[in-house]
Structure formats: structure tokens, C-alpha cells
Amino acid sequence: MANDEVASRAAVSPRTRPGRRADAARHVDKDRLTLDWYQDKIVQVVVFLGGISAIVFIIGIFLFITREGFSFVVEKLEITEFFTSIRWQPTSEHRPTYNILAMIAGTASVTGLAMVVAIPFSLGAAIYISEFARGKTREALKVLVELLAAIPSVVWGFIGLSLMNPLIIELFDVPVGLNVLNAGIILGLMAAPIMTSIAEDALKAVPDGYREAAEAMGATRWQVVVKVVLPAARNGLLAAVLLGVGRGFGETMAVLMATGHSINIPDSIFDSVRALTATIAAELGETAVGSDHYQALFTIGIFLFVVTFTINLLADLVVRGVRKG
User: What CATH number does the domain containing 198 carry?
Assistant: First the structure.
């Protein structure tokens, strides 16, 4: 009996206990991986800060422009007149007016024409790159699209001012070439690259099984694209269009240089207009800080922020497949 007790104690001695052996192994591994553990934590913190910084910056920008224009909105802004009158005369000595209907119409007309130009180009390019191009041709076209997206807006504005302006005057026999047509073409070319990239990603996200099933039933490649791929990718394609609209609505320098910067509601594509963003860029540096004019420009900024945020939110919801109505 005593011999059995001694044997059992020996069997569970500290040197042979499985629990202590595992603890010792974990202790050794912890000591061995301490540096890797800290590196992993540092990377997690850096990635988290990088991800949350965008949200912090957006909130900070909104708070800043709201602070600068809030008193004007609360105390002096007449909402109905602000959105329904075309009179923008901030420097009038008798009765300054701050109404943005003409600028909304100018921005909308330029953006609308830009989408008429950009959607066929971007959708056609995305279809060709995703469904028809192969090998080096596809890679070269993707690089070209990325290079177009990297061209600064001031360069596009210079093209509109120095190249498109005389060309429109000569072709259409109009007195001024800085108009809706000029800005719409330039803005459409600016928005096309980002729309192409997003549309291509949407087309590539369609499962290959859809294509293979359609081809097995005898469909041609074009029929596969029209009948299968495009309907399956419609959410992503709509998101590409919405982001293009947001890109056009928020563009400043190219629109400032190519529209003619004239306050009126356009009757044709050959009329000069003024955009909301161009008004802020042209006038903010010449206003007294804290004046009504200064605060009215920030009120326009609040309106632009809300519009572009709404467009981007809708695009995100569409990408996620959320349908309303």
C-alpha cells in the first residue's frame, strides 16, 4: 500500500505533470515571441489610427465649415430666397444678396453634361478591359486609365481654356467658348477614369460561373455581357455613376476655368455659367473674415458637403445592395 502511494506521487511529480509542462512551454514561447507580439500590436494600432483618421478628418471639416457659417444660417439666411433666387450680389452697397439658384443650375448642368460624356466612355472602357482585353493589352489600358486619373484638375482647366475654347468658337460659331459644353466635356473626361475603375471592379466581381453557364447555352460573348454580366453588376455600375456625379459636383479648378464664371441659368449648352465650388474658390480670398459674404460662402460649403456626402452614401448603399423604395 505504501509502495503504491509512493509510486503515484512519483508519477505526478513536478517534472512529469502535463499541466506544468504545458505552462512551461507557453512561458518559453511567450518569451521567444515577445518582440513579435509588440510588433503586431503596434501594427494594429497604426492601422486602426489610419482607418479612423478619415472619419475624424471628415467630422473636423464639417465642424469647421459649420462653425464659420452657422451664425449666418441661423440669423440672416432666408432659406426660400436662398434657393429660389438667382441674385448673387454680395458686394452691393445698398442691399447685398446671397442667393444660389443660378449656381445650383450651373453646377447641375455642367455635371449632367459631364455624365452624358463620361458614362458611355467609362462603361465601354470597363466592358472592354474586363471582358474582351487580354494580357498586355489589358494591363496597358489599366495603366492608361490610372494615368488619366492622375492628371491635375488645373491641367484639365488649362486644356479647356486654351484648347477647347477656340475650338468651340470655331466649330459652333459662338462668341464665347467658355460655357457648359466646354466644362461638361472637360469634367466628363476627368470623371471617366474613376468611373471606369469602379465599373471594371463591379464587372470582375460577377462570378465566372455565370459566364460559363451562358456560354454553355450557346450565347456569344456580347450576349453574355449584355444579358448576364451587366444585369449582375448593375449595383456596382450605378455606384460608379453616383461617384462620378459626386466627383463632378465637387470639382473646382477646371470648372472655374472652363465655364466662363457667369451667373445665369443656362438656356443652352453654349451659355456661360458659374458653379458653386468655383464661387467659393474665386471669392473666399477677397472677403473679410467674419463678414456676411464670408459666412455665405461657408454656407455654400455646408450645402456642398451635404450634397456630396449624400451622393457618396447612396453609392455605398448601392454597392452593398441596399434598395429603397
Answer: 1.10.3720.10
